[in-house]
Specification:
Elements lengths: L2 E4 L9 H10 L5 E6 L11 H10 L4 E6 L7 H6 L4 E5 L6 H8 L4 E6 L17 E5 L15 H13 L5 E5 L15 E4 L1 H4 L3 H8 L1
Length: 209
Amino acid sequence: MKKIAPSILAADFANLEKEIKAVSQAGADLIHVDVMDGHFVPNITIGAPVVASLKKISTVPLDVHLMIDKPEKFIDDFLKAGSDYLTIHIESTDQAEIILKKIQTKAKSGLSLKPKTKISVLEPYLKWVDLVLVMTVEPGFGGQSFMPDQVEKIAWLVDYRKKHHLNYEIEVDGGVNFETRKYLNGADILVSGSYIFKNDYKKNIDSLR
């Protein structure tokens, strides 16, 4: 059964505690937290202090996605804040191996890539990850249209995992809804923002699962 991770990028930030508790009670398996720095992607969201605050109120694990340059400078802060999953982008650093091993001392490590990056670039690092996040939109803003040409990355990851006896989870983020979920066979975790937070939480979480 697929895990569902509502993305708080689409939540009402004025009532964030209420929103997180509501989707958790509606069946969310994880809370997806997008961290953007205005450099790696053209948007700015939140930092480690907010993640620490979310940790105090969330009853489900925090799935923190770092869309920031040089994440090695901030890994300690986000681990200390209580990230349960901590995902970095392969394009954002030349220290991916070191970072992933460090994350694994306190949390589950994740690796992601932008749509234009070839999935094979991740191959040297897959033995150090607990999760691989496939972006089916350009990272930076919520509400974008699903990019079906990225689905082949899911199949590649499923095949690689089987061939090499690995156990990483495959997560998909970007334009995930009732219509696009049919393309996502093989994915273990579905991240969805607008589709969940702008509608009936439980109904739409159940529809994705």
